[in-house]
Amino acid sequence: MTSPGPAVQQPANDESDQVVDGVGTGDGSSTIAANGGTAAIRPGAASSAVAAASAAASVSPPPTSIATLTQLRVGCHVWVHKDGETRLAELLSIVPRKGQPTFYVHYQEFNKRLDEWIKPDRLDLSQPVQWPRPEKPKKGPPGAVSKDTPLSKDRKNRRVRPSKHNKAHPAVKGKENLPKEDKEEDIAVKEETATREDSIDATPDLSQVSEAPAANKDADLMDLDQTHPQMIDSQDDSLFSREEEIKKLRTSGSMTQNVAEVARVRNFMLIQFGKHEIEPWYFSPYPIELTEEDCLHICEFCLSYFGTIKQFQRHRVKCTLQHPPGNEIYRDASVSFFEIDGRRQHTWCRNLCLISKLFLDHKTLYYDVDPFLFYCMTVKDELGHHLIGYFSKEKESADQYNVACILTLPQYQRHGYGRLLIAFSYELSKKEGKLGSPEKPLSDLGLMSYRAYWSDTLTELLIDCYPETRDITIDELATRTSMTTQDILHTLQTLNMLKYYKGQHIICLTNSVIEHNELMKKKRRRRIDPSKLLWKPPVFTPAQLRFAW
Q: How far apart are the first and last CA of the chain?
């Protein structure tokens, strides 16, 4: 099996080269090696070098003391009773609810999804509380103007407008032609901004990894459920360590695009959706008056939301909807799919986006639903069609994305429904005769699900259709699967199946890949039957593709 095209090589990870070799004092008088190297100190700067070294070494731990409930403040670390044990947690917010303070905590070394609102009785105040370190005032050079003075603001405004001197000397860029005071002030502002951004979210983020080039940083995110580390060659074990990936997903949350303080604090402790009670993961912009309630009640058919159980029960008596308000385009023995136009069903689709925002931290769309189609997967019983999950796609995508947002509700996760949603999105792409890929960047769980699907789909096609696929090319694989060539190449590289042999790249099926394919065949999985898909690609006018501003 051959694949024409340029050589595909995986570059080495550049992060290992980014090491800080030394720390300067700021005035150019001395240089001290920070990684065990030698220090070259000028004779006249010995005292300043010793002072800098002692200051760097004397990083004191945060102060601790026994505290009362009224003394607690945002930023301190307290011990909290959780699942029969005490865990160290950081207080992110303190809000009075119904006459008593309620604390929003983030458990140290645990995923952001486990952040929760707790009541005072769960705090263990018999153990010392770690207080946040006070911020040290930044010392500027003698005669420097404070950043809060009108003169400083005037300098910032003046710096934005290019001067004639800058136009006359285009080779001089940035801060090269600024006065010395402005340079130092600009550096101080940048340092303060970086410190403030670091303090906004103490949980590491995977968005920097997933937005990086696929061959470099995406390789650090392997699927923990379906992808098999034994497929990776021994020389890449350091890059695809299963233990490290578990630690990454355990200590980091989904990608955040809203850095506002309110967006990192979950506003509901519990939601009731049908017969399930679910703990939300993230913030969702529901009406603020509902956040005072202990539980948010959501109708599982029309997705309307209520603050009290009495209001919800009165609504259920009147609600007659028993399935998503769209066309049923697929039905088999287990699931059904409905297509809903966001332009025709404004309220229902907006409510659906509000629900998904509770479990997708990176999701930003929850109001303008007109240019999107929603495909909802349901299971049916005597009461009606119950929502399992959904994915949305743009009516006209300039980047050929076949999925804009995808979610399986938590009560149905780890049952194979997420894989079914992904497979259905590619079946629609096959009907359209296009190649498709999910919109980037993906969340951490979305990236895991897609990589598992890509791996299993390609290995199954190559093995089951052999020897027909003996001389298959990358373009032919893309045509058969509707996957983009970039996704295919990345998956083959991840599975170590792309080899360079006699001047060309070949796809090599290793023993571990074959064994894993046989193991997956033994598992009974739900599959999409293309013959039961009754759907034609919709055609829209330019007016139907616009946002409803």
A: 51
42 Cβ neighbours under 8 A, 6+ residues apart: 29, 30
Residue 353 lies in a domain: no
Among residues 279, 328, 432, 439, the one annotated as catalytic is: 439
- Per-residue pLDDT at 504: 82
41 CB-contact burial (10 Å; exposed 0-12 / middle 13-18 / buried 19+): middle
Q: What's residue 472's pLDDT?
A: 86
Phi, psi of 56 (to 5 degrees): -70, -30
The yes-or-no answer on residue 439 being catalytic is yes
pLDDT value, residue 247? 45
Q: How many CA atoms, within 13 angstroms, populate the side-chain half-sphere of residue 471?
A: 0
Contact present, 251 and 203 (Cβ < 8 Å):
yes
Contacts of 386 by beta carbon, 8 Å cutoff, 6+ apart: 274, 300, 378, 379, 380
Residues in the chain: 549
Domain holding 106: CATH number? Answer: 2.30.30.140
Kindly tell me the sign of the dihedral angle through the C-alpha atoms of 421, 425, 431, 437: negative
Residue 392 is assigned to a structural domain of this protein: no
Whether the ω angle into residue 441 lies within 30 degrees of 0, i.e. cis, is yes
The pTM for the full model equals 0.65
Print the domain residue range for 81: 62-134+181-203
Work out the pLDDT band at 221, boundaries 50, 70, 90.
very low
The whole-number pLDDT of residue 546 equals: 64
Q: Give the type of residue at 501.
A: Y
- pLDDT value of position 142: 58
Q: Return all residues near 147 (Cβ < 8 A) that are at least 6 apart.
A: 185, 188, 189, 192
Q: What percent of the chain has pLDDT over 90?
A: 40
The residues, any chain, with a CB within 8 Å of residue 324's CB and separated by 6 or more, are 338, 340, 348, 376, 378, 385, 387
Q: Is residue 77 part of a domain?
A: yes
Distance in angstroms (rounded) separating the CA atoms of residues 168 and 163:
9
Evaluate if residue 258 carries a pLDDT over 50: no
Distance in angstroms (rounded) separating the CA atoms of residues 137 and 206: 32
* Among the listed residues 345, 343, 263, the one whose alpha carbon sits nearest the alpha carbon of residue 303: 345
Domain count within the chain: 1
What SS3 class is residue 290?
Answer: helix
Could you give the CA distance from residue 78 to residue 128 in angstroms, rounded to a whole number?
Answer: 7
Q: pLDDT digits over 167-187, tens only? A: 444 333 444 444 444 444 444
Most confident of 7-16, 223-232, 400-409, 456-465: 400-409
